[in-house]
Design goal:
globular, ApaG_domain, DNA repair, mainly beta, ApaG_sf
């Protein structure tokens, strides 16, 4: 479509899209390549004169899907806010916010290192600060394009059948930090393709944004609050590789006359440099309140050895851990390889595994 070009093209999550937010004046249309969902803000007439065939995917027709809005520096985005993920490039919609405690070791005070603590790892004194994250739905059209860079499920439950040890996940959900939100608006009454979009949100043209929470969304959030809530976020950077960890308590199971507690943890690896590196190994240490200390080594993560480059700077995945105690700690390192064959270790910030011991109600699925 004419005018759907931009000053700087980026490849994000294996997809082509462009953005030009600096110095923007007024709203700019967002365009999608071939309707696949790769968003681009339209350029000015001056920029249009410099259009080159290099600036868009071969054979793709750009279709307008919305208009960029100015990102919020302060405050929160409301339920129903449409957005583009600034790192992974997918379209999404905000369901509701969470206030998390962010423990950022990159900005920790210059205090001396502590001695080894009983959990077996040294740590800086880090104070948590409040930070906003959002529970969001991902557009199903974009999931195939980001699947090699980010898992498209971010909520996992223990199955709520007493005789089952199974886990089940809800696809197309994610937790997104406030600074990763690039807001946009659309005149489409169903701008996000996800089976839960119309079940959770109602179009109301008198509102801004024009999508409001249905009672089903409020009920789902209230029922599953202990299992959905994001409480602590841990972050640390080593040699320009930033590791962010978000743990979630999943519940407890009784097995062989003992209690087994389960957690899920989501990890994002981000290359802040232009040098290409590849994740080769992981080394975990898992301490349980019962007094056990487990060491886990292995190749890659979730069966992959992702490459982090300037074009594909981030990788996000999730995994699970169980303990025979109601709390514990995890920490460790990722080993990366440079193009010249040399290796370096990146610290995984230590994080606590805490249970909601007072919560007796099992997580509820999507059947009301």
């Amino acid at each position: 479509m004419a005018g759907c070009v931009a000053r700087r093209a980026l490849t994000v999550g294996g997809r082509w899209w462009s953005r030009s937010l600096t110095g923007a004046r007024g709203p700019r249309p967002l365009c999608a390549a071939g309707g696949a969902g790769a968003l681009t803000p339209a350029a000015t007439t001056t920029t249009r004169r410099h259009l080159s065939s290099r600036n868009r995917p071969e054979g793709k027709v750009l279709e307008t899907v919305g208009v960029f809005e100015v990102p919020k520096q302060n405050g929160k985005y409301e339920t129903g806010q449409l957005f583009l993920h600034s790192v992974f490039g997918y379209r999404g919609v905000v369901l509701f916010p969470w206030q998390a405690r962010l423990y950022d070791r990159d900005v920790a005070s210059a205090a001396p290192e502590k001695a080894e603590n009983p959990a077996g790892h040294g740590s800086k004194e880090v104070k948590g600060k409040t930070h906003t994250y959002y529970q969001v739905l991902i557009d199903a059209r974009d999931c195939p394009h980001i699947s090699q860079r980010s898992q498209t499920e971010a909520v996992t439950f223990l199955a709520n059948h007493d005789d089952s040890r199974a886990l089940y996940a809800i696809p197309g959900l994610d937790y997104v930090s406030h600074e990763d939100i690039l807001p946009y608006s659309s005149t489409d009454q169903v701008p996000i393709q996800h089976e839960l979009f119309e079940r959770f949100l109602l179009y109301d043209q008198t509102k801004a944004p024009p999508f409001v929470a249905r009672e089903t969304l409020r009920a789902w959030q209230e029922k599953n609050h202990p299992w959905l809530e994001l409480s602590d976020v841990h972050r640390e950077t080593t040699e320009n590789i930033r590791v962010t960890v978000i743990p979630f308590y999943m519940g407890m199971r009784e097995a062989q006359n003992s209690h087994v507690y389960w957690w899920r943890y989501c990890i994002r690896l981000e290359n802040l440099d232009s040098d290409v590196v590849q994740l080769r190994e992981r080394h975990w240490r898992i301490f349980s309140l019962s007094g056990t200390l487990e060491t886990v080594r292995g190749r890659g993560v979730v069966g992959r050895e992702p490459v982090l480059s300037k074009e594909q700077p981030a990788f996000q995945y999730s995994s699970h851990v169980s303990l025979q105690a109601s709390s514990g700690h995890m920490w460790g390192t990722f080993r990366f390889e440079r193009p010249d064959g040399s290796h370096f270790d990146v610290r995984i910030p230590p994080f606590s595994l805490e249970s909601n011991k007072d919560e007796k109600t099992p997580p509820s699925g999507l059947h009301w």
